[in-house]
Amino acid sequence: MADVKIIDVSPRDGLQNEPNLVSTSDKERLIKLLLDAGLSSVEVTSFVHPLKVPQMADASEVLKAVANFEDLKAIALIPNLKGYERAKEHQLSEVNWVSSATETFNQKNIGLTIDENFNQFELLVKHANKDGIKTCFSIAVSFGCPYEGEVSEEHVLRLVERARNVGVDRIGIADTIGIATPNQVERLMKKVLEIAGEIPVGIHLHDTRGLGSANAYAAYQAGVRIFETAVSGIGGCPFAPGAAGNLATEDLVYLFHRMNIETGLNFDKLLDAADFAASLSSKQPLGRIRHIEREHTRGNLL
Ligand code: ZN
Q1: Residue 301 CA, ligand 1 centroid: distance in Å
Q2: Which of the residues 151, 237, 247, 280 is marked catalytic?
Q3: Ligand 1 centroid vs 281 CA: distance in angstroms?
Q4: Ligand 1 centre distance from Cα of residue 293 (Å)
Q5: pLDDT (tens digit per residue) in 231-286
Q6: 98 beta partners
Q7: What would the DSSP string read from start to end of 41-69?
Q8: pLDDT at residue 153 tops 90
Q9: 250 close to 231: Cβ distance less than 8 angstroms
Q10: Any long-range contacts for 295-300 (C-beta under 8 Å, 24+ apart)?
Q11: Are 105 and 149 in contact (CB under 8 A)?
């Protein structure tokens, strides 16, 4: 029995900003490798407008390609109700809707005010409930915004409360630009968990400044048991200037396993998935453990 649940977002967050177009079959292979490592919940794609994020233009094809993957709980990011209409045609476990904690980031990312966006989300919950698809409400830039700087905890907590009140199935708190510090994470996540009550809460971490693992541990200490990461630490948000990759799944799993916190994942197979993800990225991915482990295997390190 796993103590924590890790959701890998590499096929979506990891690849959305990748300038080299990754083929649908390579995305399918990445998802298969993640599944083989024990990652059953995977954010596989986004139904964002293809002109806005060309890398996600094959959202439908990706979902068709993985439809027969046994045990896969596919999650898709949905930026608007139009995206939901396309997404619901597929076998999906959950749709992930994003709001920002600040108005400026919401305008840049989604083109709506936070209230306008939330009204759409309320409709989404009604549709998704009818269609038997779970919903997640993710709050971007919860720990700091590239446009507005510091983010008031009140803004985040009010959104958590509103999402809870409309019957969301999961809440995600995102450090979109990797600016959070461990004390900030622990403080905010304790408050979020209290307001969310029975609703599961996850944290979505970027490792921009090398604090991803420290922040994950702080979240764990606060009581968070769901973590969103990407193998090999690929990725970054196209609408967040300076946003680097996600916290690497294998770096977090290494940390947890060393502390006897069970993830239910196979670390060696996770490294295979991380190697493949890194091969798809045109940037040097942020993950650290993969290099160390590979050097060990080659006998170059003691
Ligand atoms: Zn992200």
Answers
A1: 33
A2: 237
A3: 16
A4: 25
A5: 999 986 556 565 679 999 999 999 999 999 999 999 999 999 999 999 999 888 88
A6: 138
A7: EEEEEE---TTT-GGGTTHHHHHHHTTT-
A8: yes
A9: yes
A10: none
A11: no
pLDDT tens digit string along 74-108?
Answer: 999 999 999 999 999 999 999 999 999 999 999 99
Give yes or no: 237 in active site. yes
Taking the centre of ligand 1 as the mean of its atom positions, its distance from the CA of residue 226, in whole angstroms, is 15
Q: How many domains does the chain have?
A: 1
How many residues would you count in the chain? 302
Structural contact between residues 188 and 156, judged by C-beta atoms closer than 8 angstroms: yes
Q: Is 147 exposed, middle or buried (0-12, 13-18, 19+ CB in 10 A)?
A: middle
Residue 294 lies in domain: 5-301
pTM, entire model:
0.95
Q: Where are the beta strands (DSSP E) in 159-269?
A: 170-175, 201-205, 226-229
Distance 172 CA to ligand 1 centre (A): 11
CATH number of domain containing 288 = 3.20.20.70
